Write the structure tokens for this entry.
Amino acid sequence: METLTTTAALRERIRAQRAQGQRIAFVPTMGNLHAGHLQLVQYAKTIAECVVVSIFVNPMQFGPQEDFARYPRTHDSDKAVLQDEGTALLFMPDVQEIYAGGDVGQVTRVEVPGFEDDLCGQFRPGFFTGIATVVTGLFNRVQPDSAVFGEKDYQQLLMIKRMVRDLCMPVEVLGVATMREADGLAMSSRNGYLDAVQRARAVRLYEVLGEVKAGLEAGRRDVGTLEQQAMESLAEAGFKPDYVSIREQDSLKVPNPQATQLIVLAAATLGTTRLIDNIKISIT
Amino acid sequence: METLTTTAALRERIRAQRAQGQRIAFVPTMGNLHAGHLQLVQYAKTIAECVVVSIFVNPMQFGPQEDFARYPRTHDSDKAVLQDEGTALLFMPDVQEIYAGGDVGQVTRVEVPGFEDDLCGQFRPGFFTGIATVVTGLFNRVQPDSAVFGEKDYQQLLMIKRMVRDLCMPVEVLGVATMREADGLAMSSRNGYLDAVQRARAVRLYEVLGEVKAGLEAGRRDVGTLEQQAMESLAEAGFKPDYVSIREQDSLKVPNPQATQLIVLAAATLGTTRLIDNIKISIT
């Protein structure tokens, strides 16, 4: 595995791989890699000869009160596991390399309507625009055939797909199912912030989503009540819930009565750690 | 010359040209081509073996009170002149092809800070975001090595350069000097809207810019007064001026006292036709 820190060096290496007829699959990450990330890399290996991973903690997607500064940087262990997984190229730019234009408030931004004011967007102003912008910049640097994202960040995945469609980016966007701990907790870099008591409680997020799913599968259609009960269950478990929301899977629209492919998404804070999760639901 | 209306067909043809080792230069236009456009095509031919021209009247950059519907579509004559100039590929998509995501208010947009609220941006809400968005989509379709724009739309040219830098788009952006009629009027598709009396007066826009240039070259540094006098001169000539503004050439910043590379830009309406122009100034 070769580690590159500049766009020029990255492009030169990718050009060489392409010249050998290799397809390029790209896995953008913020590092602090866990088994969920490695599953994205493994999937990328099944669709391309050359897997490029990026590690970049993107300041533009963090709010002023959020954890940009303390977001865990574990570069040595990240490199070791990516090497073991057969990553060809690791792109680790610094902030100046990505935002050479200066302050992140002053650079060209990419905005996907309908995301900044919905679900996580409502609670994290600028979050989705920050992601759309950095992913666009990374796509333009890597120019991959395919890019692989985790379904845990489901709203992000749908936004990237929408952006790629709207701007006709020459990239195939693929989602990979969420990887979970033994008890069901979705793997996340932020799980590392939880103390032992919080960690034991955290699984309730997944369990509560499962209860909503069970309700829908049992024929309940009182979506608002289901959401409200789930919010209460999370609060009882010690969470401060931001939302629990039942949506259509493909569009994230509030489901119409005929919809059968649904998803329930939630975000809730435990102590100071904000966790998100989702479960897909197919109603027959 | 081959005319293509779909992205899929365009990409296939460009792939074939690339496979022959050809470089791709791209000239995006809204059609109604005049000698200024042809100069862009001629320049493109000097830097690439394969010249791609697009003709697309972009609804996203027109305001509700603007001339989208009546913007001249002269496809047959446009095709003839492009053929004569040695254009390899002409891309003429319809609105649905570019905005498959639906209403232009609902699609992913690209915004370059500092342009929507300055110079033409102040008078045409949404104009620059509409351009940045459509150009991004066209770049992603054509994937050219270089793209060529006219300097008449100087603020647009600088915005595209800024966008390409900020998002690290793999395209070289090149500007070509404004082509003028015999009397000095900058060539523009909108000149065709002028009646004979207006056409005779229209040259005053260029002349007034020349007067500002002469003032600066003669040592005047009272920028605000120069701008104000130019506005009055335009009004006397029958224009309704939007702005006359002296700026730094590379940044469009209000010039600091040491700046030597300046540009004076103006926009003014004659009858119902809004004209723009600019002149660069080098102070020694």
Q: What stands out?
A: The radius of gyration of chain A is 19 Å.
